[in-house]
Amino acid sequence: MHRAVISGSGLYAAPDLISNEELVAAYNEYARRFNADNAERIAGGEVAALEPSSVEFIEKASGIRQRRVVEKSGVLDPQRMRPRLTRRPDEALSLQAEMAVAAAREALANAGRTAADIDLVICAASAMQRAFPAIAIEVQHALGIAQGAAFDMDVACSSATFALDLARQNILTGAARAVLIVNPEVCSVGLAWKDRDCHFIFGDVATALVVERADETRADECWEILGAKLATRYSNNIRSNQGFYSHCEDRDPDDRDQYFMQEGRKVFKEVCPMAAEHIAAHLADLGLQPAGVRRFWLHQANIAMNQLIGKRLLGREATADDAPIILDEFANTASAGSIVAFHQHRADLQRGDHGVLCSFGAGYSIGSLVLRKL
Ligand code: COA
User: Fold this and answer.
1) For ligand 1, atom 39, which residue shows the shortest CA distance?
2) What is the structure's pLDDT at 184?
3) Residue 51 — φ and ψ, nearest 5°?
4) pTM of the prediction?
5) Which residues of the chain are modeled with pLDDT < 70?
């Protein structure tokens, strides 16, 4: 058996920034027009009037202040309310692969590795741009990785942590020597920007990680993966029904269930205790205590969720040093969120320090990895 380490990470932030103020102004103009256009039906009780969104609500309920997206003009156009993307020729690199490649280049440089060293590429994300060919194979090709295999996997917000466990197992058994994981999360294309309950939630980024054998790493700083714990428990509270079946069911592309849907309050109440218990049990399996963990890189969906999970684990308020928050700047970036936190908030830890990476989300799914800095 080999030991597996994370030896490099990379981040690509989507180019356009939308502040809460811009987002709310666009939504409120959309709602004003909708209400004016449907005045008679609203008066007749046929449809409900749209209530305005508010910057104060968004910041208080979620902690999100802004988000980065692949294209903002379409999102902020009250006539459109979704990104404006140009169809690319089949020969061109897909948008998702392009973002993944940018993050991957940083992760490879960070790990002191090149395309020649990678023998497995996993693209793990909450939605893929198309069914096939796999985005991971495009990334493998674009980076010039001539050997090994590549494939896509999707476990919603837990895609990245589930992929990390898969990479770890490939390293432990010797099936792979160096694995590249990419998480291109383009959440803005699946978000219902016309729904004020969730229009503020998501942003777009790509992250990347290199996982390799501890005895072969060339990185100055690396993180041994001491253990991984994955769990799923069925819930319908976070869902999207978009897919090939929709057009056979003669669905209208504007049907609400073709986009991200959630019962946010139920998710909050059900997932927080599950995540805290999951992490505590995982640490106990390894003979560790939450108080002995130097840092928690948690999934980034809602600041209050992370504070609650932190408090349940530590028995006190978790500080930004215990469990850093990046969702104020990036919003919820699905499975990439905890990886962004890890990428940006790990350099100050000392050799021997322990950290926990943990995601939670649709499924429900929870994935945690206990790391030690070498
Ligand atoms: N602006 C103003 N008011 C809004 C609003 C907005 N943008 N969105 C909702 N409201 C209103 C609601 O209509 C509701 O009004 P009511 O009390 O009159 O019915 C009120 O604010 C509270 O709404 P609610 O949805 O209960 O808010 P919340 O406190 O639960 O916060 C979330 C909403 C989504 C931020 C929160 O539930 C959450 O983050 N949940 C977890 C989500 C999660 O982790 N999802 C995983 C995705 S991968």
Assistant:
1) 302
2) 98
3) -85, 150
4) 0.97
5) none
